[in-house]
Write a structure and sequence with these properties.
53% of the residues lie in helices and 10% in strands. With 435 residues, it is of the alpha+beta class.
């Protein structure tokens, strides 16, 4: 018996010797920083004056910190739920895809990209300039395909010759009647911005109007190289094609048309009376610039979208592993009993996958609470505060200009307290599954 005790004692000693380096590293890299942060959170910014719970009180009075807590809550509620749902749907669908392995590889590849690189990628993708941001380029293309776009956003009426309406439209200075001709001079259009089919406006200006019609020309009142006279159509001046023109009587539109390649237009079938010719504001509307993805309103959903791109493959692979271990006899029995695929998914697949789904969800909750890189890289400086989460706020307060490591340590302790319950839940569930 004594020999057995000595043997067990020797075995424990050897085990401790092997574990000691790991325990030393764990203490140096985890335990000591945690204890130091807890102690530092009770001191002021200089670290010399003890303030007790002052940093914790200040933390919940600071609007930026409250916004960080709110944004972290949005992340915790939205991102893990979406990722778990997407992972489940993709894992189920991948089983029915012929090239399942290649599909999984494509979805899992973003995991190989660092958060910094992913942040730079999505910062460019979300750029508000349609010439740079791929998302806004797509949105602008779809918008212009259905709504159209103005050809002359910089054009404006020649002052003193056209009257400007409150809505940005331009109206003829004098009233016209059937049989009259009218010229509508515009400026502010660069010769290089003229449509390719634009032709000289002079021939159109010389045409007279017939009975019951009003003729006119919309033209660029600018002669290349200088010269010419304001308000008169000179030989070198170009017509403005594609311009929408309306005829108004008593403030109501009675006819509309579009100018041709030489800027000419014609209204026919007009009754006797006085009319005003109008160039609607839609002719001068600025081009649609797309969606402000990184504005104060959408910056957090935009960053969550980047996070989904990275982690969806992770959720799909884990859930797919659980799906492959499901008893196939239960699924086949349900099919033989007449259950459709939706009923099998809802009543059999999801309940059997509940333990795996819970582990994935809780793991993602822990990961989401620590998100830092994406928020810091993607959110522009002016909206950094609107996108901030606890991890970024802790860094900003401590090192990013705040230089208050006491308050930063309090934020770190708060983040630790929020993460611990999820970690404990995950560890207990893992132990139960092992038993």
């Amino acid at each position: 018996a004594a020999r057995g005790r000595r043997s067990r004692r020797r075995a424990r000693t050897v085990a401790l010797l092997f574990v000691f380096p790991a325990l030393l590293l764990l203490g140096a890299l985890v335990v000591y920083p945690v204890l130091f942060s807890v102690g530092r959170s009770f001191f002021d910014a200089s670290g010399t004056r003890f303030v007790g719970g002052g940093n914790y009180a200040e933390m919940f009075r600071d609007p930026a910190t409250l916004k960080a807590i709110r944004n972290t809550t949005i992340w915790v509620v939205v991102a893990p739920a979406l990722l778990t749902g997407l992972g489940l749907i993709l894992a189920v669908l991948v089983e029915k895809v012929r090239w399942a392995t290649a599909f999984k590889l494509l979805l899992f590849m973003p995991m190989a990209v660092s958060f910094l690189a992913a942040g730079i990628i999505f910062r460019l993708a979300y750029d508000e300039d349609p010439d740079k941001g791929v998302l806004d380029a797509a949105v602008v293309s779809v918008h212009d395909a259905f709504e159209g776009t103005s050809s002359y956003p910089t054009a404006r009426g020649r002052e003193g010759l056209l009257d400007q309406g409150r809505d940005g439209s331009y109206l003829s200075h004098a009233a016209v009647s059937p049989g009259d001709s009218v010229t509508l001079p515009l400026v502010g259009v660069l010769p290089g911005d003229l449509p390719r089919d634009a032709s000289p406006a002079r021939p159109a200006a010389r045409r007279g109007a017939g009975a019951g019609e009003v003729r006119g020309v919309v033209y660029l009142d600018f002669t290349p190289g200088g010269g010419g006279k304001q308000g008169r159509v000179d030989p070198e001046e170009s017509g403005l094609p594609g311009m929408k023109v309306e005829a108004l009587r008593d403030g109501r539109t009675v006819a509309s048309t579009t100018s041709s390649s030489d800027g000419s237009f014609r209204f026919t079938g007009l009754h006797q009376g006085s009319y005003t010719v109008k160039l609607p504001a839609s002719n001068f509307a600025p081009p649609y610039q797309g969606v402000s993805w990184l504005g104060p309103t959408l910056v957090t959903p935009a960053i969550i979208g980047a996070y989904l791109w990275i982690w969806t493959g992770f959720a799909m692979v884990l859930i797919g592993a659980g799906l492959s271990s499901l008893p196939r006899d239960a699924l086949e029995a349900a099919r033989m009993d007449g259950a459709n695929e939706w009923q099998i998914f809802r009543r059999i697949t999801v309940p059997l996958l509940a333990p795996v789904l819970t582990v994935v969800f809780v793991t993602l909750v822990i990961n989401v609470m620590k998100v830092f890189d994406l928020v810091y890289v993607i959110a522009p400086g002016p909206v950094q505060e609107d996108a901030t989460v606890l991890a970024t706020q802790m860094w900003l307060v401590s090192f990013g200009g705040g230089n208050n490591q006491g308050l930063g340590s309090a934020l770190g302790v708060l983040l630790l307290v929020l993460v611990i319950p999820a970690m404990v839940f995950n560890v207990r569930r893992f132990r139960r599954s092992q038993r």
